[in-house]
Specification:
The complex is a heterodimer of chains A (274) and B (303). By secondary structure, chain A is mainly α. Chain A contains eleven helices and one strand. Chain A is globular, with a radius of gyration of 23 Å. By secondary structure, chain B is mostly helical. Chain B has a domain at 68-101 and 172-302: MetI-like fold (Orthogonal Bundle), CATH 1.10.3720.10. Chain B contains 13 helices and three strands; from the N terminus they run E-H-E-E-H-H-H-H-H-H-H-H-H-H-H-H. Chain B has a two-stranded antiparallel sheet with strand order 2-3. In chain B, helix 3 crosses helix 7 (170-195), helix 3 (62-94) packs antiparallel against helix 10 (224-239) and helix 5 crosses helix 7 (170-195). Classes of the chains: A mainly alpha (274), B mainly alpha (303). The interface between A and B is large, with 81 and 83 residues. Strand 1 (97-98) of chain A pairs parallel with strand 1 (2-3) of chain B, so a sheet runs across the interface.
Chain lengths: 274, 303
């Protein structure tokens, strides 16, 4: 016989289960259907006529799509690295030092997180146009405008995550290290950094996700000669919807999920430490 | 914490790069736009700062005010729906058995790893004229008609199923916003409910309060900080929406984001666009100030 449902066992109540199911269907049905129809023979995305992988072949042979894809991955990678460095340093500085203007810096660093993306997008658009940002640079420097924009909204997130991690840090460890003769650098490298690692990985994951998820900043900062994945898809969607778009989207979804799974695996072993 | 003067170089290494980045690529561009908002166009590209308020006056014309009101309402409705949908989800995850918790959380976050544009695009396929929602309803309709024919009541249902106009209207925009930003609501709610002292809920139930009363008077009250964070996290991006309304909305679903985008790209009226985007920013600050005010009031009430 089953145990009766306890008052707090909400997940065993029928209506809660139904609610959860409905929400997950709502969240996943569009994506699942998008993926399913990337294998559909019909050009018109509506009726299922048979299985094919042709659209993947087309997407992979579409040179500008591939270029856009590599560009976006590159943007995500570089902006993640920069965000982790900037955010990690800022978090440490804010954690460690007392200085005049600290609340101001705190507030300004939180701003990119909260303001509507479109405001930052148009501001950067005008900024690049007015300072005459160099164009026609060799790859991947030609992506610098987009990368800079992504770092602006990603590194404050990294700083928040890392700082939350540092809250539990015992500073006497650093003092002990220095008392025992280690230099500032050695202390940082061997004592502080290993403790920060979990926060840094979580921050990197977040920065990567934000970069791959972004459309608005990318849309406003990518110049006419740099194609990025979301902007390319945007123009494809506006012209005509073919399963090629579905195939390309599926590849990006798979890529992101794979990346995150790997990152999560990375994070697991160190979770218990510290 | 130590005084920065003790190790100025270490301090500069930590604080410097981030501060510089914010100054150069955040405050400077925003400041520039802020100046444009009080400037005038001179020639095709030049803008002279004349400290005029004309752009703000234009941005506060009834046309744009209506637009702001509409954007505000759409953002409000979407946020409310997100809250109602997300609360039971967050609560259920919170009280789920340990082993399912992470899986459920992952399921909530997973769509967030898909590019926002792709999710919006996926929504088009669901909602359009021959989309899956319409096909589904059509199938139900045919089935029902088939059942009703033998008893001679099929006349009630009309000759053919007319697809519902689901796409290219305001409902589609609201649905799109809910779809894209729902995880933003679930996560802060979950984080808050997870910390909640369960004995309070048990005490309320033990003392004879019903589940419903316990929910509204204990759980919702204690979850207030999470609710406020969730509202802010959904409401502010919803205010600035331009992609979702662009792809899912109809001719009358233009939001403030779309107009700002047009001023900067096609119409090239930078001063007006700047004034509009700063009004949007001020609205955001107002929302944040309200949150701070709520937080301060809650703290006072606790004390």
């Amino acid at each position: 016989m089953r145990n009766p449902i306890g008052p707090l066992e909400f997940t065993r109540r029928g209506w809660v289960r139904l609610w959860l199911l409905a929400v997950f269907v709502f969240l996943y049905a569009p994506i699942v259907i998008l993926i399913a129809f990337s294998f559909n023979q019909s050009r018109r995305n509506i009726v299922w006529t048979g299985f094919t992988t042709d659209w993947y072949g087309r997407a992979l042979n579409n040179a500008s799509l591939i270029e856009a894809f590599t560009n976006s991955i590159m943007i995500a990678l570089i902006s993640t690295v920069l965000s982790v460095i900037l955010g990690g340093l800022l978090a440490l500085g804010l954690y460690r030092f007392r200085f005049p203007g600290k609340p101001v810096l705190d507030g300004v660093a939180a701003l990119p997180i909260v303001i509507p993306e479109i405001c930052l997008g148009v501001a950067l658009l005008v900024f690049y146009a007015r300072v005459g940002w160099p164009v026609g640079l060799p790859w991947p420097l030609n992506l610098s405008q987009v990368i800079i924009g992504h770092v602006v909204f990603s590194f404050p997130f990294v700083a928040v995550v890392v700082r939350a991690r540092m809250e539990g840090f015992d500073r006497s460890l650093e003092e002990a290290s220095k008392d025992l003769g280690a230099s500032e650098w050695q202390t940082f490298w061997n004592v502080t950094l290993p403790y920060m690692k979990t926060g840094l990985i979580a921050g990197a994951l977040l920065a990567m996700t934000l970069s791959l998820d972004d459309f608005v900043i990318t849309f406003f900062t990518s110049g006419p000669e740099t194609i990025t994945f979301p902007v390319k898809i945007y123009s494809m969607v506006r012209q005509s919807v073919t399963p090629e778009v579905n195939a390309a989207s599926t590849i990006l979804i798979l890529f992101t999920v794979l990346l995150t799974v790997i990152a999560l695996k990375f994070q697991k072993p160190s979770e218990g430490v510290g | 914490m130590e005084n920065w003067r003790r190790q100025p170089w270490v301090f500069a290494t930590f604080i410097g790069p981030g501060t510089l980045w914010l100054l150069l690529f955040f405050l400077l561009p925003l400041g520039w736009i802020w100046l444009f908002a009080v400037g005038e166009r001179e020639g095709p590209v030049d803008i002279v700062v004349t400290w005029t308020l004309e752009n703000y006056r234009e941005a506060l014309q009834p046309v744009y005010l209506q637009l702001f009101l509409k954007t505000f309402l759409i953002a409000l409705v979407s946020t409310a729906i997100c809250l109602v949908v997300a609360f039971p989800v967050a609560l259920a995850i919170c009280f789920a058995p340990e082993r399912y918790k992470n899986v459920l959380l992952l399921l909530v976050i997973l769509p967030f790893w898909t590019n926002m544009l792709i999710r919006t695009y996926a929504m088009i396929a669901m909602l359009r004229q021959n989309g899956f929602v319409n096909d589904g309803i059509g199938l139900l309709w045919t089935g029902l008609k088939y059942l009703l024919t033998p008893i001679g009541m099929d006349g009630l249902m009309g000759e053919r199923f007319a697809p519902l106009p689901l796409l290219y209207n305001n409902t589609a925009v609201v649905l799109g916003i809910v779809y894209v930003y729902l995880p933003f609501m679930v996560l802060p709610l979950y984080a808050n409910l997870e910390k909640l002292d369960r004995s309070l809920i048990e005490a309320s139930l033990d003392l004879g309060a019903s589940q419903v009363r316990t929910f509204f008077e204990i759980i919702v009250r204690l979850a207030r900080p999470g609710i406020v964070s969730g509202i802010i996290l959904v409401f502010i991006p919803a205010l600035g929406t331009f992609l979702i309304s662009d792809l899912l909305g109809g001719p009358d679903s233009q939001l403030i984001g779309n107009v700002v985008e047009r001023q900067f790209r096609a119409a090239n009226n930078l001063p007006l666009g700047a004034a509009l985007s700063f009004l949007l920013l001020y609205l955001t600050f107002l929302a944040l100030a309200l949150r701070a005010w709520f937080a301060a009031r809650a703290e006072k009430a606790d004390a």
